[in-house]
Design a protein that fits this description.
alpha+beta, 4 helices, DUF3000, globular, single chain, DUF3000 domain-containing protein
């Protein structure tokens, strides 16, 4: 996180709030170094679905970055912007579904709307990738992955925005809401993630 101008600043309060949130026990959320140069003040979180003892997840992962710029960039329509990323491996048959990208975006919108998260100026991309191993990687077979990158300007409290992002990471990994401690099928470890 960048230097905070004071303990009572709006950004310092927002960062402290994010650090105090708790989430479902099968998605590990932690603070990570924030990318530099995006805004004067930033905080970043990472989420990993059911990580192993090394912190790696074969199911899915995500990043959530809260940006704050008191100058209120016109593209943001205010002083705050959220940038998020979520990705998960898929079975190749699912990766060929022509509606997969639309479904991934709709999961984010539905998660935000179900929590009554107030936001405006959403944008993003949903990318599906199919891969096939050759030569030394032929034994890995075919693979697929879904990735969603999105940003929006939040209004009101930040809690529903972070909760929606965690839900999205879980949904992409095959964990619908309320599915804690239920087996995930179809996860594949590949070196091409």
């Amino acid at each position: 996180m960048s230097d905070e101008p004071g303990a009572d600043s709006a950004f310092a309060r927002a960062a402290a709030h994010l650090r105090g949130l708790t989430f479902r026990n099968d998605i590990v959320v932690r603070e990570i170094p924030a990318p530099q140069g995006l805004a004067p003040e930033t905080i970043a979180l990472a989420a990993d679905v059911r990580p192993d003892e090394d912190g790696d997840s074969i199911y899915g992962t995500g990043r959530f970055i809260l940006l704050h710029d008191p100058q209120e960039p016109s593209a943001w329509g205010g002083p705050w912007r959220i940038v998020c990323f979520a990705q998960a491996p898929l079975e190749p048959e699912i990766g060929t579904d022509p509606l997969l990208s639309d479904v991934a975006w709709s999961w984010l919108v539905d998660a935000l709307d179900s929590r009554e998260a107030e936001y405006h100026s959403p944008s993003g991309t949903s990318t599906k990738t199919l891969s096939k191993g050759f030569g030394g990687l032929a034994s890995e077979g075919d693979g697929a992955q879904i990735e969603l990158r999105a940003s929006w300007s939040p209004a009101g409290t930040l809690t529903p925005h972070v909760e929606a992002w965690v839900e999205l990471v879980g949904m992409l990994a095959g964990l619908p809401p309320g599915s804690e401690n239920i087996a995930v099928f179809g996860a594949r470890r590949t070196s091409r993630d």
